[in-house]
Write a structure and sequence with these properties.
There is one protein chain. The protein is an alpha/beta fold and 192 residues long. The radius of gyration is 18 Å and the shape is globular. The two termini are 13 Å apart. Helix 1 packs across helix 6 and helix 3 packs across helix 5. The chain contains six helices and five strands, in the order αβαβαβαββαα. The longest helix is centred in the C-terminal third of the chain and has 40 residues.
Length: 192
């Protein structure tokens, strides 16, 4: 029991990024079932230089407040060969942008190492914020694309909007707790 408590403490202390490590197909399927938009990075950690270059910016963006509504996940293709084949991974790093359980966009490789973080930031904003009716400037937009301003959320949407926002917030908290629990369980499993 003492060993498990120590493992839990170490796991919690070593969490530096909100990137979920996918170690089996069940974890992958669980992530696909999440309501949160998700970016999955497929990489070869042992031998891919571009993958190593992408790791730090990917982790930094996972902690960025602009993307707290996005789940970040990672698959090592050498450890998850069958899943990688099923997903059609032919080059690394490959980024899958997932929403509502299906792939919305795919990017293969890094076009420019110096601007990779900003390129990834722009792609995340374009792919996921637009789907949530928020453009990259932070202004809420209507379905027709017209700007509604930042204060439109509570005054113009009424009680239904408040409850929807509250429900979305609770769902995000539950997803974060679930991700943390999966991470801790995997760390504990790796010790035995």
């Amino acid at each position: 029991m003492k060993k498990i408590v120590v493992c839990l403490l170490i796991s919690c202390l070593t969490i530096q990024a909100r990137v979920i490590e996918i170690n089996n197909e069940q974890e992958y399927n669980n992530i696909l079932q999440s309501e949160r938009p998700t970016i999955i990075k497929f990489s070869a950690d042992a031998w891919c230089g571009a993958c190593k270059l992408a790791q730090k910016p990917f982790e930094e963006l996972s902690n960025d407040d602009d993307f707290k509504h996005v789940m970040f996940a990672h698959v090592d293709i050498d450890k998850m060969q069958e899943l990688s084949r099923e997903q059609g991974i032919i080059g690394v790093p490959t980024f899958h942008y997932i929403q509502h359980g299906s792939k919305k966009e795919e990017e293969v490789g890094i076009k420019n190492a110096h601007s990779f973080k900003e390129d990834l930031r722009e792609n995340l904003a374009r792919t996921f914020n637009t789907a949530n009716n928020v453009d990259t400037s932070g202004l809420v937009t209507g379905d027709d694309g017209s700007e509604m301003g930042e204060s439109a959320s509570t005054e113009e949407t009424g009680k239904g909007g408040i409850f929807a926002t509250l429900f979305a917030f609770i769902a995000k908290i539950l997803d974060a707790i679930k991700a943390l629990f999966i991470y801790i369980v995997e760390k504990i499993k790796s010790l035995f």
